[in-house]
Design brief:
Layout: E1 2-3, E2 8-9, E3 13-16, H1 23-53, H2 60-88, E4 93-95, H3 96-129, H4 134-137, H5 140-162, E5 173-174, H6 195-228, H7 233-261, H8 270-294, H9 297-313
Length: 314
Amino acid sequence: MTMGSGNTTIIEEFILLGFGGRPQLEMVLFGVLSLIYLVTLFGNLALLALTCLDSRLHTPMYFFLSNLAFLNVCYTSAVVPKMLVNFLAARKSISYRFCMAQVYVTLFLGAAECFLLMVMAFDRYAAICHPLHYTTLMNKTVCVSLAIGAWVGSFLISVAPSFALERSLCNLIIDHLFCEAPILFQLACPGQDLSENEAMMVTGSVFTLLLPLVLILLSYVRIVAAILSISSADGKRKAFSTCSAHVTVVTVYYGSGMFTYMRPQSGSLAEKDKLISLFYSVINPMLNPIIYSLRNRDVKEALLKVLGRTKGSQ
């Protein structure tokens, strides 16, 4: 349901080029990404289960981590299965509705991850800078309100304005692995002025990428100042260790996200874009539970407790 110049054209599907010129690479990617997808599902679903089953993980940090784990499962499930099918298919197509669904889902969940990372930075700020008031500042009502605000705010800021990007699509060929907002510029009708759409995307990125990033950085300025004021070296080390995972994920996610969404699309390099999109849509969701939790002593103890309870019941 798009419009060409002068006539109305009904578009039912698009062709995703992917790495179509390299069939051997696609076979390798199929095997590797299938394994990564399974690890992603296992890691994030395990984190969700442990957070629900073990009372020691009923803390603000793990509550927000469970939101992030749920987001990771939804994001990869919206992108990876269809990508894997196309790696094996001779005709690499995607329906118009599925393509638009991927655009909106990736926009929504990408923005939600930014807001959740911002909320998690505030949680670390409260824990380190105001330890005596932490339980009051981050009570259950506040945590639930922050999580709901992150989800609802990301939808209103990223998805609602993006409907304007769907106009005047003429091209059926997408030189990418899946559908996301920047690829809509590839589908524009010849001669169409895209400056307004690009400006809208950059503006949306300011609110969904830059604003959370600025607030994260401000939180860490206060966090670093508080840590440096700790007299003991062991105290400083423990305080830094509680933030290192969050800093790592913020750096990785924001680096790839800003490269994709905050630059002009006309000069983009397709092959580089595909590799970057693979990283933040497939690799990053797998790394998140590993970086944040699966190396954490509390999570290991919770896992051993659940496994021991399971064996004891048999």
